[in-house]
Amino acid sequence: MDSVTHTLFGLALYGAVDKKHMKKTQKRAYLLTAVGASQIPDIDVISQLWDSEGLYQMWHRGITHSIFLTPLWAALFILLSFLLFKVKDAKLFFLGWLAVIIHNTSDLFNAWGTGYLEPFSNIRITFGTIPIIDFVFWVILGTAFVASKFNKVKSPSYFKLAWIFIALHVIIQSVQGWMVYNQYEDDYEQIALSAGFIPWTYTVIAKNDSEVKIFQDNLFIERKLQAELTSAENADLNVLFSEKPEAKTLTEWSPFVVIVDDGDRLGVYDPRFYRNGQSFLFEYIDKTQ
């Protein structure tokens, strides 16, 4: 998910906590933990500073998003709460732990995926059933924030209800995505799913041999062919990988790639992010130089 959504998740966790009898320092510790732990896995962006081998694509949402690392992140905020606010509260650990788990797990549902099982598995897990920016989340949480302003006593209940609606949205969206995905399994060797910004709509990328087709689909309309692509499967990628390590990383990171070898360029791109004739995840070398 995007950073705004993760921040809203943190604020919603904080909002769901009953703070009637808390001191100001306790409230600050809870706010820091809820919001900070909701963001901390994305600290991996700093790895760009020392990436000299084109591995950032794998590092981003990699080990920092591992489910096995979540207790360590929670423990970090226990320490910060004590150092900054002199607050000792075991509940902070579980709040922080829940916040990190929500961050890492929610990122599984969009096309980018995460290294959820690292370091025991390097598989990038992605379901592709929720868009990276999901405005349904924003509407649900925004409604809870507004309602809480009118009735502060019931504020925690509003946020807990919001979390129920979020869970229902994820379940409904994912079940529909799974059903759409299954409709392609008999006809294509490789399939990838990417949720659209409009609820219940999906982009399906299907590949047979060198042919890649991109469809717009949902359960209530006929699928629409958006693009047909040809992958140069017989191209020798050794030179590309040698000169552009990012290309090898992208090939390992993506469910599958489209290979371009048109005489001018040799490269690979992720068709899940194909828009208006190009993919923003495209690594190539210029063969004319």
Automatic annotation (TrEMBL):
Entry-linked Pfam families: YdjM
Q: Which residues cross the membrane?
A: 62-85, 92-113, 125-146, 158-181
* Coiled-coil residue spans: none
Q: Which UniProt keywords apply?
A: Hydrolase, Membrane, Transmembrane, Transmembrane helix
Q: Name one GO molecular function term.
A: hydrolase activity
InterPro entries (alphabetical): Transcription_regulator (IPR053170), YdjM-like (IPR007404)
Q: Which PANTHER family match?
A: HYPOTHETICAL MEMBRANE SPANNING PROTEIN (PTHR40031), MEMBRANE-BOUND METAL-DEPENDENT HYDROLASE (PTHR40031:SF1)
Q: By what name is this protein known?
A: Metal-dependent hydrolase
